[in-house]
Structure formats: structure tokens, C-alpha cells
Amino acid sequence: MAVSTRQIFRAAIYLLFSLIGVAGIYFWLQYDFIAAVQIVVYVGGITVLIIFSIFLTQQVGELLPIQKVTNKLLAAGAAFFSFALIMVQLYKHSFAKTTAQPVSPAIDNIGSVLLSTEAGGYALPFELVSILLLAALVGCIVIAMRPANLSTTQPDN
Amino acid sequence: MSTPGLYHLLFVSTALFFIGMYGFFTRRNLVTMLMSIELLLNSVNINFIAFNKYLWPNRLDGLFFTIFIIAIAAAEAAVAIAIIINLYRTRQSIDVQATETLKH
Q1: B19 vs A3: CB contact, 8 Å cut-off?
Q2: ipTM value for the complex
Q3: How far, in Å, CA of B104 to CA of B101, rounded?
Q4: To the nearest whole angstrom, how far is the Cα of B101 from the nearest Cα of chain A?
């Protein structure tokens, strides 16, 4: 429904519930940290950001235009046939059973591996993601900033 | 087939992926296309977590990939929404058909 409703605000709310469902899957798999991150980042961050941008860019109550039926049919057909193809491949394939001793996905394990610089550690990607987030922050501010000369010539538009 | 296992999780994530793909194909509004991209990234995350849980339980690699994907998705959503709002200022519309200045 998040992809088919014509009211954009309802689409955002349906997306919210889909993301909460994904977080529920993580909880059920006992990956509590990932579930918490999912709720905080997606449900608390991205959905609120999307709802804000909807408020900034849409008139209230405006419906999205109806798409052409051929477009919808083609997209649905492509999605369905790809889905069927992947399902057929998946059920033909059998994954190797693992016998390894499971490691607990607790927060202390996550932290020690995330910051370890030995083999299998994730310190370098961690720092790269930090730099990427900083760059995204600066980039957002630069993009969303109104140019100075434009704001002086046309104060409100 | 009685207890949910890896195949069921893969089924859910595949379904979520193609729902997102359908939305990406049919929507013409940039915000809703962004929402479809979030669905795609979430299905990939489910896949990583499921494989990590069932096939690779002695390491936490899938979990870290999921964390990094979530971080990058947050950055991507923020940048995309900044671009969309800027576009709305200049075009008064966030339809993809309106963003054809660079064509020709």
C-alpha cells in the first residue's frame, strides 16, 4: 500500500508501518541492536524527514496523479516475473548447513569488532562512514541553502 | 516448513524488494520514489541479517553490513530531500517530468 495509495501522506504512514515490521523481524531474529537502530534511524529519522518534506512540498489533500494503466501493468508484470524467477531459483537451491558455533550479537561484541583494527575488524569502514555522514551533512546544508544573491533579489518566493 | 526459517525470510525480503521496485517504476513523484528506495534497502538488510543468522553465525559480518547500509541510507535520504526541496523552490513541483532542464 505504501507504493499504491494516491494520498502521499498515507503512503508515508504505510511506509512507517512497513519499517516497524522489518524492525519486528530483527527482534524476532534476536538481533536487538539492529532492531533498535532500525527503529531509531528509519522510523524516527527518515520517516519524519519524509513527512516534513511532504508538508513542505505538497498541498494538503492533493491526490497524486493516476498513472497510465500500461505503465502500471508493465511494472507489475516485471516485478512479478522477477519475483517468480528468484523464487524458483531459491527453492531449487539448497544452502549448506553450518555447524559453526554462533556468536552472540550483543552490543559488547558488536562494539569490539566494530572498532578492532585486526583482521575482520571494521574500524576503517567505520571511519569512512563517519566521513561520509559528515560530507552528507555539509552537502545538505550547501544544497538546501538559498543562494545569497538570490535571496536579496527575490526575498520571498 | 513448520517453523519459519531462512527461506521464509528470503521470501519476505524478495517480496519487499519487488514491491519497492514496482513503486519505483510507477511513481512519478520524487518523495514517493525515495520511499520506494527505502523499501529496497530494507529488503537488502533483511537478507543480510537472515544470511548472517542462519549461514554465518560465528561472525557478525552481515550485521555490520546492515549497520553501514542503514547509515548510508540515512545520509542518502537527507541529501535527496535537500535536493527535492531545492527543486521544489525552483520548479514548484517535485514531479520527475519537471526535472528535465539538463535534457537536450
Answers
A1: yes
A2: 0.80
A3: 8
A4: 17
